[in-house]
Amino acid sequence: MQQKILSSFFLLLLAFASELFAQQAYEDEPDMTPVAAPSRVRIEINKKYFEVCEAELGPFPQETIHCPDAVLIPTERTLAGGKVIKLNEDLPESTPRFRNSETGQLKLNADTQLFDDITSCDKPSGVFRDMRNAGCIPGNRIKHLINQIKGGQTVDWVYICRKNSNFSKQGGHYNELGLIGYNRHTGKTCYFAGQPTQTLKVNGKWKVIEKNNKGEPVETIRTEADVALIPGEKIPAPGFSKFDEKMVIHWSVPTFGGCTRCHSNGPFIRYPFNEPVCLVAGSSTSCLRSFSSNEACGKYLEQTYARGDRIKYQCRVLKPRRQPGMLYSVISPFDGDGTLNKFLLAMSEADKKDKYYEDLMQYPWEKPKRLVSPEAKACAQCHALGNGVYATFVNSLFSVHSLKDEKFHPGVGENWRARLFLSNVSEAQRSDSAHDKKIKSEGILPIRVSAKSIKEENELREKLSLGHYQTALRKINDCDRQPGNCQWDDHWTMERVKKESFKYLQEHCSYCHASEMAKPVLMTEADFKHPDLVDKIIGRMHEPTNPMPPSGQLPGSVLNVLSDYLRKANN
Question: Where is the signal peptide (predicted)?
């Protein structure tokens, strides 16, 4: 009996201490307000979304999502001379983002067409809450998990914790939390939007440009703003088999247009500015240390490990690889043939008046497509270019050095966003892009030329190769501004690969295996059917170290479909 009393007293004391610690942790914080509980309609819709997604992707491999477990994206700035410095918490005063009035908060430089007085870094997040420091707040983290489900299918899960303002001084607070689930074997993809559970009221004085009732721009002074916050520790993961209504407090089907405007090119957006490079041991996916680039990781490896130990480690980009030919099929509330869409349309008229339902249905998700215009092939051969805002960032950040004076302008709709992102990047990164370096050093397209010497051959090949890139970039710029001038196609699915195997192979192999590029020429069905080539093509597709496009990371099921097609075509 005495032991039970002592035990109860100890638990009571522990609870009191925990509550006291929580109070002390927020002692220096301004007032925080919990967000409203989700409505019954929101709970029902998300439960159905979790059910549909789990049927295609299986359950998330962990019970909780914990941002401190994710890999830190280094916050660094490369100076003009090449020196790299780390950014700390000592940043300029913050300015909150006010929707629809962002550009009025910043000064646009007429000469550079960039915004002045913005913190710059090598890897800005691309999502902005603090307009003065934009995407350079330290503390962004990302995690990649791999899960095997029924039938041996591989599912990639990636979550990112974005810290895009420094209004809250708590290290565990984030401004955005996103989760992506992707089935490599089917292309089925789900997007989960992390929900803020607290609101921080920020007081200050900010000058913004807003429109009056006549649509005229008017200068306004704002004195307060609400900043939504997500405590990023041990958040229950979304799921159906162990569904709990508390999950919907933390997760939601993305509203207001969803995620496909940015993720129009595929499930994962990858470019050098938003991904850390990890030092890993062997084939492990555990990140021992993160770096801002392969060069920085390689340098550390050289300096830290003896040659014998060095071969046990490698530098690896954390996020899943993206390559042409990826299967991609988004589970969308607006897919007319989809289970979720039918569920939403069958809800009662009273439920359809719920604000969450209205927010979800008011702005349909765009159907993601990919650019297939022949003029863009030099880029589209290796990069899926979507019909959403991704092309804007291609125009802004990946210009070939000989085109940097042409001043490509992003489309009107996303003009402020692209300018803000470009202003946010370190000057050294803007002036010499990753693609510039690749073309100058070793990234030349395999063009076949005839010349009197190796030197003349290399110079001519580089000139011709550069011409292909120039043509592609100009076309991409045109497609961003006037999409109707360009050719777009749906993303590949397993059903399409089965029905259009030849088109799939032709689309991904014929560009490099054209007459001016390489031998053998693979353009027509007869070329692919040639008895001397079928086994070689199949062998190259299945090569583990240097596979022929478009295999890459594609599942064996797709490779088997293509192999069967080639063998049957040869008979």
Answer: 1-22
